[in-house]
Amino acid sequence: MRLLPGYLWGRRRTLLGFLCFLSIQAGVYWLYHLPSEPVVYTFVLTVVAGLVFGFADFVRCARHRRTLSAMIRSVPIDDRHLPDARDPVDASYQVLVRKLRDENARITGEQDHRLGEMNDYYTLWAHQIKTPIAAMRLLLADDRTDPGALGQELFKIEQYAEMVLHYLRLESLSADLVLREHDVWDIARDTVRKHAPIFIGSGVSLVFDHFSMPILTDAKWLGFALGQVLSNALKYTPRGTVTLRPDPSDARALLIEDSGIGIRAEDIPRIFDRGFTGANGRSELGQKSTGIGLYLARQVLNRLSHTISATSEMGRGTCIRIGFPDLTEP
Asked: What dotted CATH number matches 147-323?
């Protein structure tokens, strides 16, 4: 029986103390040369009392263990069924178990929430990426297809693939950062070149004069964030103008302005939230939005110690402002 050896081992100090007590008792009786009958009688009573109390404690311990074993086998564990604490140590362990339960519930809830958001995003992403794929299939079926039109749809697919990869890497972004001194102009120029097919295909004009703005950043991740902002501007600026320029009131900030449809005032505080699409994302203009691009841009810029904000007016356009810390600041 495994329970009995385990119980005896757990009570070894108590048993050792009891044996020491009997030894001391016998030694005292022997030193005083007491008659053997009362010595034996006292010894027997002490042993019997010890066995009675020991058996009662063993039964209680067995019940305690059966309750805990049943809880261990149950999924999930319900700490409300914990046996009553036998001593302060038991009570402390039960407090610890409840704290661990609460922490586990919190972590599980966060994981479930993230998994739900990820499933929602991938579902919408899968439907969204079907649009350029279907467009490419139609273009390929036409012998007169303009290669530029195919290039636009291919670029959209590449953008969606890049977005989902960065979405997955966002949790470990800090380990991937390589901070160096770069000029915002160079990063913005590369981003604009990458989006050139969309500018040409959608008939959107670009205003992008040369400027110098040295900053400390990660060129790859800043380029990704700028790409998300630029893609959003192109999506909601049909045959308008997109402008990239330094902020006249702050030489450490970049403005990305468009003459598109604008954003409702009540939507502006939420455009950087995960999954928020607003009225524009549900409109008939363009494709249905995932509501993830500007969220990723903000998350990346925050990790880079940059800032991002937006102002807009319906029917007039939107201005996204990205601020950079001063290199001379300690």
From this structure: 3.30.565.10
